[in-house]
UniProtKB/TrEMBL annotation:
Residue ranges constituting the Cytochrome c domain according to the UniProt record: 233-325
Main location: membrane
Domain (Cytochrome oxidase subunit II copper A binding) ranges: 106-222
Record organism: Halovulum marinum
Name recorded for this polypeptide: C-type cytochrome
Gene3D superfamilies: Cupredoxins - blue copper proteins (2.60.40.420)
Family to which the UniProt record says this protein belongs: Belongs to the cytochrome c oxidase subunit 2 family.
Transmembrane segments: 39-59, 71-96
Keyword Transmembrane helix among record annotations: yes
């Protein structure tokens, strides 16, 4: 009993479960349903626990003659079997009744998300569009509508999860899985791969940005454009380094000869909230650190290190990439 009360005392600790990557701090319809379900389940479990243990203590302390066998049986069967069964059945049917909405197809925007080692390929297909807008490592969605996510993977199984927006869904090579999300509140959240997928599984994250519909439409229009030409001398020199070092054989920067598709599309890299799939901030210093030695930051990463370029040329590269907004 004392241990149980100690557990109950820990419930307020759940109040710490808030923030950009918390299921208990929902910003989407599906996450809100799940958070509500969690609190109902927790409440039900606490009531059951107290009831069953309370009954056990009560019955074990009874004087043999104080209660008829019939009354004791009724007490134990009612409290130990019937009540828990009814309570669990109510909670189960409540949970199941919410499932159809979570499995409903999206309307309007569709995003194809592909799990790579260890980053995310994002392809946005607005309603009626023929060709997707290609991006990476950041999911942007309009608030107030249900968007469709078509999930896939190369090489190994990953799992797509933005806890603040909804449930998680596995991404399986050679197969397309689907889910839909209905974000409600504009803001910046965080997604995380939720299936162990190798060395850098824990470092496979992404920014999830929910925008007002009009701002989202403008962002997507901009994302579809080619990269702007470098605006400074350093950025121009940086682009020359980028092309001379063969970065374009793995990365695409639309509007330049760089058209590789092995690594993330960098056309509007600097417009993203994070670098290297949610691991680093989008700053010049982080860009330099990443390019110099990606595997020191993300073990097993496919990208080779470019430490040999030296500080001056890394500065130029960072200046070029920082300008890709
Ligand atoms: Cu991808 Cu874990």
């Amino acid at each position: 009993m004392r241990a149980g009360l100690a557990c109950l005392a820990l419930v307020p600790a759940l109040a710490a479960c808030e923030g950009r990557q918390s299921v208990l701090d929902p910003a989407g319809r599906d996450a809100a349903v799940m958070a509500e379900l969690f609190w109902w389940m927790l409440g039900g479990a606490v009531i059951l626990w107290l009831l069953v243990n309370g009954l056990m203590v009560y019955v074990s302390r009874l004087n043999r003659d104080a209660l008829s066998v019939r009354a004791a049986t009724l007490l134990v069967v009612g409290g130990g079997i019937v009540f828990p069964t009814v309570l669990l059945a109510v909670l189960l049917s409540y949970g199941l009744s919410e499932m159809p909405r979570q499995l409903a197809p999206g309307t309007g925007l569709s995003v194809r998300v592909t799990g790579e080692l260890w980053w995310w390929r994002m392809e946005y297909l607005p309603e009626g569009a023929e060709t997707p807008v290609i991006s990476a490592n950041e999911l942007r969605l309009p608030a107030g509508s249900r968007s469709e996510l078509r999930l896939g993977a190369n090489e190994v199984i990953h799992s797509f999860w933005v806890p603040a927006l909804g449930g998680k869904t596995d991404m399986i090579p050679g197969r397309e899985t689907r889910m839909s999300l209905e974000p409600l509140e504009p803001g910046e959240y965080r997604g995380q791969c939720a299936e162990f997928c190798g060395d850098s599984h824990a470092l496979m994250a992404f920014g999830a940005v929910v925008m007002e519909p009009e701002a989202f439409r403008e962002w997507l229009e901009h994302e579809a454009t080619d990269a702007a030409p470098p605006a400074t001398e350093a950025a121009r020199a940086g682009r020359a380094v980028f092309l001379a070092e063969g970065c374009g054989s793995c990365h695409t920067v639309r509007g330049t000869p760089a058209d590789g598709t092995i690594g993330p599309d960098l056309t509007h890299l600097a417009g993203r909230t994070t670098l290297a799939a949610g691991v680093l901030p989008m700053t010049a210093d982080a860009l330099k650190r990443w390019i110099a030695d990606p595997r020191a930051i993300k073990p097993g990463a496919r990208m080779p290190g470019f430490d040999h370029l030296g500080d001056a040329r890394l500065d130029l590269l960072a200046a070029y990439l920082e300008g890709l907004e």
